[in-house]
Protein: Helix-turn-helix transcriptional regulator
Amino acid sequence: MPIVVNLDIMMARRKITLGELAEKIDITPANLSILKTGKAKAIRFSTLEAICKVLDCQPGDLLEYREEE
Structure:
C-alpha cells in the first residue's frame, strides 16, 4: 500500500505507549494497533485529530505517501 503509517515513530519520539495513547484518544488498543501496523483501510478525521492533539504533531507526521514500485 502506498500510504505508510508512521505512528510508531511519533509514539517513540513522544515516549508514549500504545495503551497510554489509546486511553487518551478513547480508542481500543486493538484498533490503534491495527492503525499502527498499517493494516487499517481508513481512519476517521476525528481519530486523526485526537492523535495529532495528543502527540502534538501534524497529519503529515503520521501519514506518508510512497509510490509503489
About this structure: DSSP finds five helices and two strands in the chain. The mean pLDDT is 94. The domain at 3-56 is CATH 1.10.260.40 (434 Repressor (Amino-terminal Domain)). Helices lie at 7-14, 18-25, 29-36, 45-55, 59-62.
